[in-house]
Amino acid sequence: ATMLKNLPEKTGKTLKQWFAVLKKTKLEKHGQMVSFLKKDHGVTHGFANLIAHQFRSADAPAAPSGPVDSQYSGSKADLRPIYDAILNALLKFGEDVEVSPKKTYVSLRRGKQFALIQPSTRTRVDVGLNLPKAKPTKRLEPSGSFNAMVSHRVRLESTKDVEKKLINWLKKAYEGAK
Question: Which residues, other chains included, contact 110 with Cβ-Cβ below 8 Å and sequence gap of 6+?
Fold first, then answer.
């Protein structure tokens, strides 16, 4: 929310103006949009990432369909608010959070991957975390066969599960990814 508020001052354009710029490019991939905004318009990585994410989100009227929209469509459409709540919390960590959508999950990076978000079933989103020294708990379980790129997994079934403990684990993983 703070980044959105500061966007015009820091980048020289409103979000609506950035949407118009991106719409003209006909770029579809998140990474392409981020690169374009950074290279052609001098936008910092954090703001470029935010603009691209907002443009591609369901709230952007002319947003092209991409991997995140595909992940949260059909029987998994009701899980999108969980993803959005996690992302809103993550974007407050710093301008260097890189959101990299893949076909079936979203990689969260800061130099290296520190977490991922995946709609695993029609009723559950899994958050994978790189916390190699953290002891597993009932909620912070070992990743097992979930994904070899992370050490732990947290299962979420509603936006209520995006609470302080999860945000603290994400922040710790983020801080360890420098």
Answer: 94, 96, 97, 98, 174, 177, 178
Q: Could you list the beta-strand ranges (E) of the chain.
A: 98-101, 106-110, 112-121, 124-129, 141-142, 152-156
Unique residue bearing structure tokens 């979203």? 106
**CA nearest to 87, candidates 1, 157, 15, 6:** 1
The C-alpha atoms of residue 169 and residue 83 are separated, in whole angstroms, by 16
Which ranges of 42-148 does DSSP label H, i.e. alpha helix?
Answer: 45-56, 67-71, 80-90
pLDDT for residue 62 is more than 60: no
Pick the closest to residue 153 from 168, 175, 171, 169 (CA basis). 169
Nearest 5°: the CA angle 52, 67, 90 is 55
Position 63 scores a pLDDT of 40
Long-range contacts of 43-46 (CB under 8 A, 24+ apart): 43/11, 44/10, 44/95, 45/95, 45/96, 45/98, 46/3, 46/91, 46/94, 46/95, 46/96, 46/97
pTM of the predicted model as reported, rounded to 2 decimal places: 0.65
Tokens matching residue 106: 């979203």
Q: Provide the 3-class DSSP secondary structure of residue 139.
A: coil
Show the tokens assigned to 141.
Answer: 């379980």
